[in-house]
């Protein structure tokens, strides 16, 4: 009986967009926090960010998710204006209700303190904000008076209830209810309002905007109390993207495009401390959350910074990873470290067991990483910036030089002793310890390369649907054999015993050849194919099973002993293609998808 | 908003009073000082309430609205208005007419108005409409025939 079970997942970072505020969702129990990436909602443990869960049932790009104050439900929304309310407690996350209050992207969601009503805002065709009962969907008043995209909405946590909404028309609208009715519009800001938040005791609320200002109002009457910081100068030197109150309502944090987060004393209306996050554009702070003792803020590059109130200069911890789609993956021979690289060229290394991770620093690839492999202390990467890099591992810094290629290296095959083969568009290049040692011009477009474990032969796949086998004599390549395949090769995998070669192809086929018998098809494997282009293949350590991943979101495990059996892990990465696979042991598989989740699976067959 | 004209809060409040509290029969807006503001509020009288679906009465009432919207005999000014229009709606196949109310948003841009005025009102229309929220039927009127009771009636009928 074949079974599989996901054991752990290392998640993506929040999706960010320059100069666009977004919202983190806090957990009323103080345990987790929520954010969005791609079509998923990520539930992450605040104390140990390696623990996480990914909700993948949205069909459009997700935009915001918030816990109900009761802690039992999460409401999440997407770019099509759909709100899904689902169970937090069980693992399947049963859907309780789905509504579509507006026809465009939803920017913010808020629950009423009794967990009965939900208010949303965003960019609809006719309306920009809506408040409804979560169980029936019937509306609770009409939120009128907004004339452009509303960015932020909040619900007064104490009676009498109020709703505030702020947006691109640079006003904050104040509603009384329920049923909610327009009461007044507050026009203190001169530019977009990015975030509006009631204090947890309901006494006051704050609005912050792209004009770098914040305003404090009375929570019940909306009378202007003061400008944040006294009004002598702007609260921040750049647009303010978010604010979050301390649980006791005495302090506030604001995060801004001037690359700082500021902590304010709301009794004195004065700044307590300033957290300088850096000087680069990617250090702009787009969202912040104060939950229990934790102060989080998110940088433009997606990093989640845990701020330290006693030491504002350095964060306690920074959760890193990828917020661009991951494009390739490699695992060290001892299976202790996973390397992942993304479309921006960022490379992260992860501890397989604990999820401890960091980004490889220094000047690295400037574009998408197309292929990578790791062997004997060398991490070899090929990138769309037309270079191949050798990075020594374990180590967290890029090597000094990039080896520039004459054309784009689409794939790289890695062998022992620092040998690697790069498949470029019009040549095949042999590299040894970071130096180009041989170049063979070819008249086909090479798409992938592989090195046989015994280091005698090199495989190159061509766009002309052919497999070229070369003998590796010293550092030179001598043509040996050409085999007709069904599609262009996207990836090679040798079985660890060196006997079998599997070729993932664009034509959906996985061709498995017997390398010991002159590359003939292995009997029975002609039926090995998936529903779309196969992107990655991996042999298990004992060379009995092959795992393949595809554009069709599925992983299939093939048994060499029973080649007609098809053990499919359907939707292993829901709504996103699989980009990398690797076995840790015969029963443990790692997969990476464009949803940027790095999943580990227990496999029984 | 494209014209830089903003919508005053009193506009939304007035609509809310008209829509939810039925305080007004109609409200006329104009652009003054770079802002859309209330120009005239016409309160609902008890007579209005008693004769809500009396077509003859409503026609008379409508004439008052048209006169006020037009301004004087020679006034060639543009205006916006929201109008709580009551009709007896009878669709094909219905046995009896249904008493319904439609909120009409009227954009009055007479042909004889100055080009500058027409441009200003046309480009600010969207901002006003968005601030007023959903569930409002737009009626564009450029001459008197398009302000007639029958024309409004036709627009207010469900499709």
From TrEMBL, chain A:
Q: Which InterPro entries match?
A: WD40/YVTN_repeat-like_dom_sf, WD40_PAC1, WD40_repeat_CS, WD40_repeat_dom_sf, WD40_rpt
Signal peptide boundaries: none
Question: Any idea where this protein resides?
Answer: Cytoplasm
Annotated GO biological processes are: actin filament depolymerization; locomotion; regulation of actin filament depolymerization; regulation of actin filament polymerization; sarcomere organization
Q: Name one Pfam family in it.
A: WD40
Cytoplasm: present as a keyword of the record? yes
Q: Which UniProt keywords apply?
A: Actin-binding, Cytoplasm, Repeat, WD repeat
Annotated GO molecular function terms are: actin filament binding
Q: Which Gene3D superfamilies match?
A: YVTN repeat-like/Quinoprotein amine dehydrogenase
Q: Name one GO cellular component term.
A: cortical actin cytoskeleton
SMART domains per record: WD40 (SM00320)
Task: Pinpoint the residue ranges of every WD repeat in the record.
Answer: 55-96, 186-227, 233-274, 319-360, 534-560
Q: Which family does it belong to?
A: Belongs to the WD repeat AIP1 family.
Its name, as the record gives it, is Actin-interacting protein 1
From TrEMBL, chain B:
Q: Name one GO cellular component term.
A: cytoplasm
Q: Which InterPro entries match?
A: ADF-H, ADF-H/Gelsolin-like_dom_sf, ADF/Cofilin
Which GO biological process categories is it annotated with? Answer: actin filament fragmentation; actin filament severing
Which part of the chain is the ADF-H domain?
2-157
Example of a GO MF term: actin filament binding
Query: Which PANTHER family does UniProt cross-reference here?
Result: COFILIN-RELATED
Similarity comment = Belongs to the actin-binding proteins ADF family.
Stated name of the protein: Cofilin-like
The record lists the organism as Branchiostoma floridae
Q: Which gene encodes it?
A: LOC118414465
